[in-house]
Every structure is written in C-alpha cells, then in structure tokens.
Write a structure and sequence with these properties.
With about 400 residues, the protein is α/β, with parallel strands linked by helices. About 35% of the residues lie in helices and about 10% in strands. Strands 2-1-3-8-7-4-5-6 form an eight-stranded parallel sheet, with helices on both faces. The longest helix has 20 residues. It is globular. Bound molecules: zinc ion (ZN). It catalyses: N(6)-acetyl-L-lysyl-[histone] + H2O = L-lysyl-[histone] + acetate; N(6)-acetyl-L-lysyl-[protein] + H2O = L-lysyl-[protein] + acetate; N(6)-(2E)-butenoyl-L-lysyl-[protein] + H2O = (2E)-2-butenoate + L-lysyl-[protein].
Amino acid sequence: MSCKGNSNETLKRKVVYVYSPQYIETCDSLSKVPNRASMVHSLIEAYGLLQHMSIVKPHVATIEEMAKFHTDAYLEHLYKISQDGDNDDPQSGDFGLGYDCPVVEGIYDYAAAVGGATLTAAQCLLDKRGEVAINWAGGWHHAKKDEASGFCYVNDAVLGILKLREKYERVLYVDVDLHHGDGVEDAFSFTSKVMTVSLHKFSPGFFPGTGDLCDTGLGKGRWYAVNVPLDDGIKDDRYFQVFTSVMQEVQTLFNPEAVVMQLGADTMAGDPMCSFNMTPVGVAKCLRHVLDWHLPTLLLGGGGYNLANTARCWTYLTGTLLGQTLASEIPDHEFFTEYGPDYSLEISPSCRPDRNETKHLDTVISTIKDTFTHHLNVTVPLTLTHATHPPTSKPACWGCSGSRETQDVC
Ligand SMILES: [Zn+2]
C-alpha cells in the first residue's frame, strides 16, 4: 500500500541533504530530543531516499560565523561553560542558560555543528548545487542574539537567512512549527529585506507568548513580520486553507528571491505538546505550495517531541520533494521498533476538537490581507524594480510614513 497523498510525480527537485555521521552523532546528544537526528536519518535512508539526493558534509561554524548574529559575550560564555558542562556558572542565567536550555559538556560544539550545517546548506543554494537544501537537525528558531531560549542555543535559521542575503535581495522566512518563531522575527524585525511569516499556537501562558496578529515588525521592518495565531486542534485542511490564503498575499507583495522554511513537527497529532492535530500530508501540501514558486529553498527542522512521528513527518516531506511515493509499511531498520504498534508511515489525527472558530480564522486572514493592502501595496514598485517585467507606472515614493526603507525606491 502506498501512502495516500504522496503522489509526487511532478515534484522532483534537485535536493542537497546535509549529512555526516559525526554531525548526526553530535545532534543526537541534544537532551530534549535524544537520538532524534539518528532516527530521522535512518528512516530517510531506510526508504532509499539518500540515493536521490546530493549528500553534502556540513562544516562546523567558526565563532566568527556565529557572531554574524550572536554576540561575542554570549558565544564566549557558551564556549567557556561547554568545556566541563558547568551548569552552576552564575553568569549563565543572563544568557538564558539553565532550565529550558541546560548546559552540558560540548554544548558549544553542538551549536557550532548545527549553525555550520545550516550555513553549508545555504551555501549550496548560493552555489546552485541544488534547488532545495535540507538540514532536518536545524531550525532552532527561539535563540536570541545574546540568549539561549526554548531548547535553542544557536539560531541557525537566522544564520542561514543572513547567508542567503549575501546574494538575494529579499528572503522570506516561513515557520510552521507549533511555536512562534520569535528569535527569527526579532532578528529581522527592523528590516524590509527579510519577511518573516509564522503560523503558531497563540494562547495565554503558551511559550514563547509572542506572535499576536497585531505584531507586524518595527521601524523600517514594519509590516514585514506576519503572525498567524491559531488555537488547539487545527487539522490539515483548515491549516492548509489558512496557509495558502496568507502565502498568496506574501508571495505577490513581497516577491521573495529565496525562502527559508522551518518545518517543526510538534504540530503533529500525537506530539506531547498535545496542541495541533496535523499529519505529514497537510504539512507536505504547505511545502508544495512554497516549492511551486521555484525559488532556492532552505528547509529546516525544529520542534518535534514525538520522535517517531517527527521522523515520519520529515521522511514523508523528503519523499515529497523527490517525487517519491513511499510505502506505508515502515522498512526494517535500526529504529524499527520505535514505530509500533502499527509500524506505518501515516499519522492519524486524533479525535480532539478543533478549537479554531471559523469566524476567528476568517478575521485572521482578512486582517493580514487588509494589512498588506493598506501598507504593503506601495511595495509593488519595489517588486517591479527587481522583476523581469518593466514597471507599468512610475514607482511611488515610500515617504508616506517615514518608517520604511525609502532608499529602496526614492
Ligand atoms: Zn516548537
């Protein structure tokens, strides 16, 4: 039996997969998701997908590379405490290290490995070695420039975006993790060159507590952050409907030249977060929507605390990219026993209710569309200056609010 919804004959992308045994071993050490990197890689391998991708060995990021975003003080402290796994350094609290981000020996090496892998993937896109580049062990979207947060010690997504910005004028970040991509949004909240779009659970007391509909960026970056707050229980069809409604506007008005997509799998049914009720089929439809733009696309992992379901999800997405239909039965491999009792690739949605009222979703979509219409339609001339078609009218000046990058067109 083949996995329904994965008939991807038309979708065969040239894909770079960042991998080395050492990299996987390093990522396996992350205490919140032990051995997850191995489980994901082993399932991708067991389905025979490696032979369809270019496998590229990641490099380890230098401190200078990580300092493109993170502060020297944070990186130096991470390096210092990493030597002996000192969890009691009094300064650690200032850098967000402790409770959610425990200090273990070698944590700096882990951060440098993840950061380097995403940089390697981004470089492959710049060098046109692939149309899509994957780092499933990346996507740590909560880390701030001087602070670890939410299991994230390095914000590799930010590093990847900065790398792509070396060549591409406008980079779009799309985050479908259960949690708000706050670290990435914060990093680019003052620029119009990077648009961040995050769909996430937004509920009192739910981490990180940011990402309300009205949070749209600051200064020159105002209107370039898009937040789609959702409630528990959302399933594939409605999620896809919201996603496409928002992304159509984003694509038209921002006209990105490259995309970074964070595909955290803590939205899956069966995740211990017990919030959304998604399956890999729904996420794959969202991914296909983005891939249909035919832009250089960097794919990252993220959350995902039901390790078997996370491996199912990212393997299914890898198959989607490669136009491969995957058998429902999990192939025999090292982690086979983790996939019981059904040993199948599919994830069935649970019977939990969808708490998202249609009226609320309609309001979210219409508010985002209105925001674009009233504030971002002046970007069309900017878009046209980079497009192959000449502008049909004289570009408008941005001067109306004085809060955006007037130098772009004036
Ligand atoms: Zn998450």
